[in-house]
Amino acid sequence: RRRRPPTPQSPLEKVAAQAELSLPKLAGKWFLVGVASRCSYLAEHSHRLEATAVTVTVPDGQSLATSTFRKLDGMCWEIRQRYLPARARGRFLLKGRAYGSKVDMVVGETDHSSYAILYYQKGRSISVKLYGRTSQVSDTIVEKFEQHVRAVGLSEDMTYYFPIYGFCDSVDEFHILD
């Protein structure tokens, strides 16, 4: 009887989650500062990046609810998502509507008060995002982010920084995606 080869380790399984993570301290408003990804759409449309703000809440003490405000084609939209706790502290799962559309997320590093570095994986594709409590972060924090990016095999030419102006503050009821 032949044995099946072991399933390869997912790239995200190698990423350590923040040791002293406090979900209540993670709650509040964050600004998307940068993202590193192999996404071809992002590479082709990086000149069209829009300022993006996210509000995080912890509705039940263990999951993260996000409300992302961003412009799409000049209109402000709100995208609501709920990340459920996964097997270990600091790891979360966003269940998609379609088969294979789940997203795994790990809080890689944060000081809760000025920055957070999060890892996302959909399928075998991994991305790293840098969030700040303000739309600009220090060079030291950018350097930390770039170290995390290199650690998962992404590079400088796959890293994109977001505008620091032009944020959406609200949307009407017709521009909410759950």
UniProtKB/TrEMBL annotation:
Residue ranges constituting the Lipocalin/cytosolic fatty-acid binding domain according to the UniProt record: 27-161
Cellular compartments annotated: Secreted
PANTHER family with a match to the protein in the record: COMPLEMENT COMPONENT C8 GAMMA CHAIN
Top-level division of the source organism's lineage: Eukaryota
Keyword terms: Disulfide bond, Secreted, Signal
Coiled-coil segments: none
Cellular component GO terms held in the UniProt record: blood microparticle; extracellular exosome; membrane attack complex
InterPro entries tied to this protein: A1-microglobln, C8G, Calycin, Lipocalin_CS, Lipocln_cytosolic_FA-bd_dom
Family indicated by similarity: Belongs to the calycin superfamily. Lipocalin family.
GO MF terms, alphabetically ordered: complement binding
GO biological process terms held by the UniProt record: complement activation
Gene3D superfamilies noted in UniProt: 2.40.128.20
PROSITE patterns, sorted: LIPOCALIN (PS00213)
Protein name per Swiss-Prot or TrEMBL: CO8G protein
Annotated source species: Eubucco bourcierii
